[in-house]
Amino acid sequence: MEELEQLGEHVRQWRILLGLSQELAAERADISLPTWRRIERGEPGVKMASFMSAASVLGLAPRLIGATDPLETDLGKLRAPLLGRQRARRRDA
């Protein structure tokens, strides 16, 4: 997936900008070096917890969480009352 590869490349670039080796970054994230390398290659199948550990080491976790907050968008603000429902309405096929 192109998006995963781009995300992995961004992780790699942030690591380099921060002056961290892959080994040190993986150690700080408490993940294995092969897992860190898989993240940087954008391989599917990496656990979200591992990815978020990597993001935390790079100082990206708050930005990722903010970027996915629906209430930070016009659509999310408009449809915020829907979030109080237990279930979404079923669409008729």
Q: What does this entry look like structurally?
A:
By secondary structure, the protein is mostly helical. It has a single domain, classed as Orthogonal Bundle (434 Repressor (Amino-terminal Domain)). It is 59% helix and 0% strand. It has six helices and no strands. Helix 1 packs across helix 3, helix 2 packs across helix 3 and helix 2 packs across helix 4. The longest helix has 16 residues.
Secondary structure elements and their pairing?
Blueprint: H1 2-17, H2 22-29, H3 33-41, H4 48-57, H5 61-67, H6 74-78
Helix pairs in contact: 1-3, 2-3, 2-4
Largest sheet: none
Count helical runs: 6
Give the strand content.
under 5%
Structural class, please?
mainly alpha
Give a brief rundown of this model.
This protein has 93 residues and is an all-alpha fold. The chain has six helices and no strands.
Tags for this entry?
mainly alpha; single chain; 434 Repressor (Amino-terminal Domain); 6 helices; 93 residues; elongated; 59% helix
